[in-house]
Amino acid sequence: MSARTAEVVVCGAGIAGVAAAYHLAARHGVRDVVLVDERPPLSLTSDKSAECYRNWWPGPDEAMVAAMNRSIDLLEELARETDNVFRMNRRGYLFATADPARVPDYLRRAEEGARLGSGPVRIHAGAASDYRPAPADGFEGEPAGVDVITDAALIRRHFPWLAADTVALLHARRCGWFSGQQLGMCMLERARDKGVRLVEGRVEAVETTGGRVSAVRIAAREGPLTIATPRFVDAAGPFVKDVARLLGVELPVFCERHAKVALNDALGAMPRSAPMTIWTDPVRLPWSDEERAELALAPEHRRLLDEFPAGVHGRPEGAGDSPVVLLVWTYDVEPVEPTFPVSFDPAYAEIALRGMSRMVPAFERYLARLPRCFVDGGYYTKTRENRFLAGPLPVEGAYVIGALSGYGLMSSNVAADLLAAHVTGAPLPPWASAFRLERYEDPGYQALLERWGDSGQL
Ligand SMILES: Cc1cc2nc3c(=O)[nH]c(=O)nc-3n(C[C@H](O)[C@H](O)[C@H](O)COP(=O)(O)OP(=O)(O)OC[C@H]3O[C@@H](n4cnc5c(N)ncnc54)[C@H](O)[C@@H]3O)c2cc1C
Questions:
Q1: pLDDT grade for 331, boundaries at 50, 70 and 90
Q2: Does this model's pTM top 0.70?
Q3: Atom of ligand 1 nearest to the CA of 218
Q4: Residues with a CB atom less than 6 Å from ligand 1
Q5: Residue 111: what pLDDT?
């Protein structure tokens, strides 16, 4: 090995590239892996996440649930090996509704989840039911599957902080959150222990010889650098499409801009032990009559009187005395070009807080005088059906790990595991083809895309 050769060059040290380097070097024994990034590792999108994970995904087939179960297996394995350095919990995702018409849908989704592999269904329709809430910390010994609670007394007993008119809950159990930064640093350290080199610079060109990858040209901090290599991995996050173009490959991906709000919940509106909690009904933001009249007169604010889509969600963040809660609401799904620094709707924090107060009424106490809110975020880089890409590109020696959308921390390990298996020729699981770029060449798959349904985005 010399500084100017590598077995594999990975472009991008976000969670995708770091996981790829870790799986290649530490789990698949590939030597001479070089990780190139023009920014510090994990600093573009991967440190903006809400850091949650779930094996709770819709169909149309089992691939997404199978992939997430594999990713969570790998995360749990790493957590066990490291004394849970990235503080993985298993609090679950708690979906809530006040609409009685949605209850049959919860039951149908629960059955569908069981069929797809998320785990068994437990229905709790009476106050004497044996529903067991999740512990705040740790992930061992907890059930998978879902609990569907339709008994009002049981809902009140376990979740008295939810809106009083909540009629049903769906508690998906192989879900929770962890520290994404700790996870990333843990994988990066392990990768570096196995010889992975980090190069600070921008990948500017990928050279091919006889139709296969032969070298990568980098504008490195120390000056131009060319690394001869037979393999190149595009892990460029929101720039995955631009980097693929260096090889003449067009990727079917686009970006949506999304943000999270962090605020100090000094009034304790949300219990510190709460699960990730999601309101599945559309919401009209609460305004006083006076505010409503004012907004109606201002064309640029009138949208605030419209109905917002379902899906406002939030969770407590941080251990010990932390008062922080995180809120996310992906109501704006307009595709955009990724540009940095990212700017967000100045009204986003207020919209998210008002929306959240529909589900957790104690948040209303903040509405008269908004608390200081910290808003950050980035781009969900997505394929049309919201399934990631992990596998070969149509240039020999080139691969992609990307389009990790709003679930890149939770899926990083399975995506990297698949990528490393493609690179090394290791056996692939039967559902690996669901994440290859090649899937779009299949007319059957194209037809399926037309009637896809729920993409699983929250
Ligand atoms: C608000 C929000 C909430 C989220 N919540 C969750 C969540 O709860 N759970 C979850 O699992 N996921 C969540 N996500 C999604 C997750 O953060 C992303 O899927 C993930 O971070 C994407 O990782 P990445 O490595 O693909 O991209 P990035 O982290 O953006 O990394 C890409 C890297 O490539 C580098 N790069 C690009 N082009 C070049 C080049 N030419 N040369 C050198 N380097 C280059 C960039 O500098 C960058 O460092 C959330 C995202 C957002 C925005």
A1: very high
A2: yes
A3: 42
A4: 11-17, 36-39, 44-46, 48-52, 202-203, 235-239, 243, 258-260, 328, 377-378, 402, 404-410
A5: 98
